[in-house]
Amino acid sequence: MMIAQVLVDLPLFQTDKPFDYQIPEPWESLIEPGMRVTVPFGNRKLMGLVYHVQDTSEVNQLKAIDTLIDYTPVLNKEMMQLGEWLAGQTLCYLYTAYQTLLPAAMKANYKKVVSVQDHERLQIFHPEIAKVINGREQIAVADLEKQMADGQPSIHSAIKDGVLSEGLKITEKGSVKKQKVIQLTVDLQHIPEIIPQLNQNAKKQQLVLKFFYDNNTDHLLTSALITQTGVGRSVLRTLIDKGWLTEFEQEVYRDPYDDKSVKPTEPLSLTAEQADVFQAVYKDIIANEHHVHLCHGVTGSGKTEIYLQMIQEVLQRGKTAIVLVPEISLTPQMVERFKSRFGSDVAVMHSGLSKGEKYDEWRKIYRHEVNVVVGARSAVFAPFDNLGAIIIDEEHETSYKQEENPRYHAKDVAIVRGQYHECPVVLGSATPSLESYARGQKGNYQLSTLARRVNNQTMPEVAIVDMREELRNGNHSMFSKQLFDQLQANLEKGEQSVLFLNRRGYSTFVMCRDCGYVVECPHCDISLTFHRKYNQLKCHYCGYDQSMPETCPECDSEYIRYFGSGTQKVEEALNQLLPEARVIRMDVDTTGRKGAHEKLLNRFGSGEADILLGTQMIAKGLDFPKVTLVGVLAADAMLNLPDFRASEKTYQLLTQVGGRAGRHELKGQVVIQSYNPEHYAIQMAAEHDFFSFYQKEMAVRRQHQYSPYYFLSLITVTHSELTTVVTITENIAKHLRETLSARSMILGPVAPPIARIKDKFRYHVMIKYKYEPGLHETLKKLLNHYQDQIAKGTLSIAIDMNPYMLM
Ligand code: ADP
Ligand code: ZN
Ligand code: ZN
Prior knowledge:
Layout: E1 3-8, E2 19-22, E3 36-41, E4 44-54, E5 67-68, H1 77-90, H2 94-100, E6 110-116, H3 119-125, H4 127-133, E7 138-140, H5 141-146, H6 152-160, E8 164-170, E9 178-184, H7 191-194, H8 203-214, E10 219-221, H9 222-229, H10 233-242, E11 245-251, H11 272-287, E12 292-297, H12 303-316, E13 320-324, H13 332-342, E14 346-349, H14 355-366, E15 372-375, E16 387-393, H15 410-421, E17 425-429, H16 434-442, E18 446-450, E19 461-466, H17 467-472, H18 481-493, E20 496-500, E21 510-512, E22 529-531, E23 536-538, E24 545-547, E25 560-562, H19 567-577, E26 583-586, H20 596-605, E27 611-614, E28 627-632, H21 646-658, E29 669-674, H22 680-686, H23 690-704, E30 711-719, H24 722-739, E31 745-750, E32 756-757, E33 760-769, H25 775-785, H26 787-792, E34 796-800
Parallel strand pairs: 12-17, 12-18, 13-15, 13-16, 14-15, 16-17, 19-29, 20-27, 20-28, 26-27, 28-29
Antiparallel strand pairs: 1-2, 1-4, 3-4, 3-5, 6-7, 6-8, 9-10, 9-11, 21-25, 22-23, 23-24, 30-33, 30-34, 31-33, 32-33
Helix pairs in contact: 1-2, 3-4, 11-12, 21-22, 22-23
This protein binds adenosine-5'-diphosphate and zinc ion (2 copies).
């Protein structure tokens, strides 16, 4: 008897381990780890994942597996190991870890289908199946199984032979995309003979056939045929009835990026600096060796070009590559650079894709139809089985860290996969994270530097303006004199400017001028943000909204106004002060709709505006030749966050924003406005002096015992009653103090800066440690201890083994 160990889809502590099931006899030789099944569990049926197959079990009276969902494993050996690692690292459930490796569509409602790959061979080698399928292209597996005598084994062998292929048909409406195609039933060459045979009054019918002939094709998308010939459906209907044409539906991949407009590019010849970086990685590629390479290259130093050439080497060796870029810089511009070099060999994955689109991209990778994936964080799980390189651009970006379960960092995953595949992992950034750079200094990572921009373009000149001084001189506007003068000058010269304001709706809170009352969210301890467009106040944490009050709820004063300089407010000010300037505003409000982001950038790129005004989303990846001025309206907003990485983030952001100026022939100028102009992060960013910043910031981190000198773990306890939160957090802290080594530090319990979200109180315990081998185990036990309350949903304990969000 064969036994399958199955992980079930029931995320609880008690079920976070494999359960034994008997494998029904006909499937004994078919079932492998990584296949999904359904199993009876208690008195219900659950989805499960085969974890291990063996021939003994300690359990008497085993239940049997119900159904086999996959005929080929959806997770291979590497992925099975990776899931295990992920669960261990992040303390999530094993089943959750494995789900993270699969596209969301595979969790959604779906129907398994098989498609016929080769009708002829199906007929010869699997006549029983051919009979059931009866000429169709695709059939639901359930229907096929029902009508077959021996069911699964023969379907399995047809799939093994490549005659059938498995797929999912998502039952969500419209998630499998289909297009209607019209096919000519006669030979193309015969059209000139056929046309005279048609009724001579049927001009439109003739036109359609001639269209096929002129375009030298025997099939066309129905929609294209109709728009291009201008004939109606009835004409096509007639031709179909007469037997000249047939129409069928074709399943197509959704392609969010249109390849057709992309012009191919050739590799550029590398500069000496670029060649050095390339060589170091190339050595690993040809020797199949794993190293982590950290490429510290200033903005515009040609990192992307190096990535492209590395990938080319990887592809030439029949291998595959993953390129991670931050969500926010996954702009059409960036994607186009990869598509223009590798064409349809590239899959693109980002959060803007629908479930179905993501599933399409995943399938392309799984089926070896593409060899490169460019994507955001989760693309690190792309199911390539022969990786030749993993590249992480802007490696310092915190969006590589997932802020929900499992709380993994894509960099760690990349390194684990790089070790498995014995291939290099390349981290690139103009402003590496302190953690990575420290590893580079130590020699754990191979550090290389690109100190110059390509073509020796100088770095932009940076001026820091002291906004306190402006106030003293009577300037109450949000633009310093220098920034305003330069905006005006740029406008006159016909050059473009970028204005940057970090954080959406940057403190556009509503306050009463009489009594100081600030309108806060009734469910979260945070002020509501004003959105002028809808005249509404909104909570960015829970989504609560309300209309703008007419009078102060506290004192009834009419002088209740919104404060702060959101992007909307800056736009209004610009319209007043520089009425002739054409402004494009980019923030969450203007880019909410799909494709809006791209449209706005294209408009700016084609010179339809003089000023691009925006939030974080304009800080990265943009490359417009005519941008010569970049203004940072308030450099301090980030500096004052209660986060030990505040200085680092400020340095990174200022460098990134500054990097948008003068990337081409025209020289660039950056103006940074600040109320804190002496701060080292601002000073050193202005001087483009990364190394000095690194040294200074390392000293600060050492003094305050933070990363990279110490590892951190953050425990967030959440409950609707304040006293319960405090008690539990106290107990946790006490337990950790007793259990962990004396050299580790346990901070807390403390109330975090945002002490309440969605009506639940939050408390923190932070662990700082250098060496604590039993920590994961201790924390796992801790979760286990509170499992009943957690399962009831009243209590939540979130453990983040590498926190980036400290609020
Ligand atoms: P980074 O990714 O470091 O910001 P990019 O790869 O975007 O830099 O390069 C900046 C610009 O220089 C791009 O327009 C790119 O096409 C160009 N470039 C890069 N490498 C070369 C090269 N070897 N020769 C000429 N131009 C180059
Ligand atoms: Zn008031
Ligand atoms: Zn709220």
